[in-house]
Amino acid sequence: LPKNIESQLEKIVGQNSIIRDNNAMAPYLHEERGLVTGNADIVLRPNSVQKISSIAKICAKEKISIVPVGGSTGLVGGTVASGGVVLATDRLDKIIEIDSLNGTITTESGVILSKLQTAAAEKGCLFPLSLGAEGSCSIGGNLSTNAGGVSVLRYGNTRDLVLGLEVVLPNGEIWDGLTALRKDNTGYDLKQLFVGSEGTLGIITKAVLKLFPAPKTTITIVAGLTKLDVILTLFNQTRELCGDCLTAFELIPRIGLELGTAHIPGIIDPFQTAHPYYALIELTSNLKKNNLRETIEIILTRAMEDNIVSDAVFAESGSQRQDLWKIREEIPAAQSREGGSIKHDISVPVSKTIDFIKEASRRVSKVIPDIRPCPFGHIGDGNIHYNLTQPINMKKEIFMQKSGEINRIVHDLVSEMNGSISAEHGIGFFKRDDLARYASPTKISLMQAIKRAIDPDNIMNPGKIL
Fold this sequence. Notes:
Layout: H1 3-13, E1 18-19, H2 22-25, E2 42-44, H3 49-62, E3 66-69, E4 85-88, E5 95-99, E6 104-108, H4 113-122, E7 125-126, H5 139-145, H6 152-155, E8 162-168, E9 174-177, H7 191-194, E10 203-210, E11 212-213, E12 217-225, H8 231-242, E13 246-253, H9 254-263, E14 277-285, H10 292-305, E15 309-314, H11 318-329, H12 331-338, E16 341-342, E17 345-347, H13 353-367, E18 372-378, E19 383-389, H14 396-400, H15 403-416, H16 432-438, H17 441-454
Parallel strand pairs: 2-4, 3-4
Antiparallel strand pairs: 1-2, 5-6, 6-10, 7-11, 8-9, 8-10, 12-14, 12-15, 13-14, 16-19, 17-19, 18-19
Helix pairs in contact: 1-3, 8-10, 9-12, 13-15
């Protein structure tokens, strides 16, 4: 950056909130999977929307790129910078207001998700967004990527949890859409432009989010399945009898459990015998007295009689619940410790999930015969993390060289099934070419038109999505 511009930016944020040293900048250039390395001229850490607005005005005038960065936990290279300014939101860390009666929480965008969850719980409320990185991801990043997580089945994606936003636009103007209304039919729903836009249209600085009554009862079960094909039957039976009390329904393959017990301290197999697949089921209720336990026991008993379920384990305490969820949440880390892992975040209609897993496994096995599929995740909403672990006797480097070919096979199948190549992680840098390949020309044209209208000089997180 020119020295005079750098000096102007330093005056805005203060000497202690500008980072020039490469080592000090490293945490803000971090890419979660280690596939690429970012770089920047400087990192700025402003603590107010007014300062962000002033920064954006200077960058717009000088046509300097801005890459907004939250917790850097994304998996598609959405915050990888290539020069210019990295704008970190970690100092926007205040929870502004909790309105229990209105069921809303107003927060700055740099607040860590787990802090938001805790603040809501202290008021007897629930903020239902929950994912593996919740101890380090920021709510601004969750909004920018339209994060999913384990409770989408009942509460929806992040998009469904937001009522209002405050956003700094690429020209430095501040859009104040910080409404706490559930009904506002005054034209275009502008906030939804910015949710899922991955910082390419502006910088989210504040949000009003929905809260719900905190559950009084939580029941968590892992059921050992007789085979993959039966899981949708179990899902349908559970949904029919439990209704909205069904909060999460997750698929865990045997290999996921085996890798977890092998590589992650604290993970133990809760069963005496092995099962090919498992369903992690969570039910919640706002009533202290209910028949949820009795209902799920009836479902499981019938499932055992019908040769759907072989065995089931209930969490009888909070710590046991954490242990069961740890099996599911640590699968990606366990895969990484095992060796090479080719990852996919796809969605297809729930009714097609099993067909997808079986056909995708058949196709990739033709290319790499001993490949180890590890499909897991949110089968209740059709989002499968179709991950592939390297063969035991293949070197990681050779396996990872096949990534492009394998990705094309998997994504071609997703397209055939009218699914999505990115269910909850976004597009970022890594999936940009895939989006161009699989999206319709009309969709791409509309997205480009929106980008040009809001960010004509392409300074806001350039090179992502489009």
